Amino acid sequence: MQLFFDIIDYDKNGFVEKDDFISIGENICAMLQLDEENFYYPLIYAACEKAWEDLYAYVDEDEDGRASSGEWFKYADEKIVNCDKSQYQLYLDKVVQHIFELFDQNKDDFISVNEYINLFMSFRLEIRYSAKAFTKLDLNKDSLISREELYTGVEQFFRSNDPSDKGNWLFGSLEDMKV
Predict the structure, then answer these.
(1) How does DSSP assign 121-133, residue by residue?
(2) What is the mean pLDDT of the chain?
(3) Please, which residues have CB within 8 angstroms of residue 80's CB and are 6 or more apart in sequence?
(4) Which among 140, 144, 134 has a CA at the least distance from the CA of 106?
(5) Beta partners for residue 66, in sequence order
(6) Cβ within 8 Å of residue 108, ≥6 positions away
(7) What percent of the chain has a predicted confidence (pLDDT) above 90?
(8) What is the pLDDT of residues 53-99, one digit of tens each?
(9) How open is the CA angle 91-93-94, to the nearest 5 degrees?
(10) What is the band of 137 on the pLDDT scale with cuts at 50, 70, 90?
(11) pLDDT above 70 (res 177)
(12) d(Cα 31, Cα 136) in Å, to the nearest integer?
């Protein structure tokens, strides 16, 4: 869970906050060369704000508009790691939905390798691992990641105890991850 916190803490100030999600949206728009006049520009910002709102309601205990690592770990323990199966599935559904809203640019309900590289670039992850991570998550080897494949990968990333599970590559190599 520390890795996920570090990835979302975009400005590296030790807190997850709305501005981190907005920065990710700005990166996506810049990467896609979208200006404010483009139809997709406000949609990307709205998706990033929605991702923050979905998280904020659960994680900001002291209501200061941001989540400390302590608040984050309590949230992760209660709402991801040690929650009931239906609550966990709801969380996974939201994560997968947000990834598809932000990165399935052609809206074909699949993530292509280029769209997956965009995910890496948007989160400032080690781009050199993007193709390998994509290959690991593409379980049926059709050169696309479906919602089901992404769901499996996200689930393994959050709950697997097996370091060799392919979902642990969701954001690149865990061994070399320096966020």
Answers:
(1) HHTT--GGGHHHH
(2) 90
(3) 1, 88, 91, 158, 159
(4) 144
(5) 17
(6) none
(7) 58
(8) 888 888 888 999 999 999 988 988 888 888 888 988 988 998 999 89
(9) 65
(10) very high
(11) no
(12) 24
DSSP 36: T
CA torsion sign for 88, 115, 30, 127 is positive
What burial letters (b/e) apply to 132-171, b meaning 16+ CB within 10 Å? ebbebbbeeeeebbbbebbbbbbbbbbeeeeeebbbbbbb
Q: What is the pLDDT of residue 2?
A: 83
Please answer whether residues 114 and 165 qualify as being in contact, where contact means their C-beta atoms are separated by less than 8 angstroms.
no
Concatenating the DSSP letter of every residue in 37-91 gives TSTHHHHHHHHHHHHHHHHHHHH-TT-SSEEEHHHHHHHHIIIIISS-HHHHHHH
Torsion of CA 35, 18, 73, 122, to 10 degrees: 10
Identity of the amino acid at 33:
Q
Closest C-alpha among 143, 54, 45, 148 to residue 102: 45
**Which of 97, 121, 117 minimizes the C-alpha distance to 109?**
97
Select the highest-mean-pLDDT range: 46-55, 65-74, 146-155: 146-155
Q: Nearest 5°: phi and psi at 178?
A: -130, 100
Interaxial angle between packed helices 40-59 and 85-103, expressed in degrees from 0 to 180 and rounded to the nearest 10: 160
